């Protein structure tokens, strides 16, 4: 399993995807402060989807 972890660390996002992830994660504290849990979950799901897409592309 340590081998898989090492491969995950080597995966990097494209500039476009990194910009999206940075922009989305910056919004999380704002929505958490407002108590908007639904929006926080939605943002986290979007970030996870970007990572999944990147991992699939890396291993395809």
What does this structure look like?
The protein has one domain (12-59). The protein has 60 residues and is an all-alpha fold. It has helices at residues 2-10, 15-34, 37-59. It has 3 helices and no strands. α2 (15-34) packs antiparallel against α3. Helices cover 87% and strands 0% of the residues.
Question: What's the gist of this structure?
Answer:
By secondary structure, this protein is mainly α. The protein has one domain. The chain contains 3 helices and no strands.
Question: Secondary structure elements and their pairing?
Answer:
Blueprint (H helix, E strand, L loop, with lengths): L1 H9 L4 H20 L2 H23 L1
Helix pairs in contact: 2-3
Counting helices, strands and paired strands, the structural category is mainly alpha
Number of domains: 1
Gyration radius over CA: 14 Å
Task: Give the fraction of residues assigned to helices.
Answer: over 70%
Task: Indicate the proportion of strand residues.
Answer: under 5%
What overall geometry do the principal axes of the alpha carbons give? elongated
| Distinct helical segment count | 3
- Global mean pLDDT: 88
**Cα distance spanning the termini:** 20 Å
| Largest sheet data | none
Question: What are the key terms here?
Answer:
3 helices; mainly alpha; 60 residues; single chain
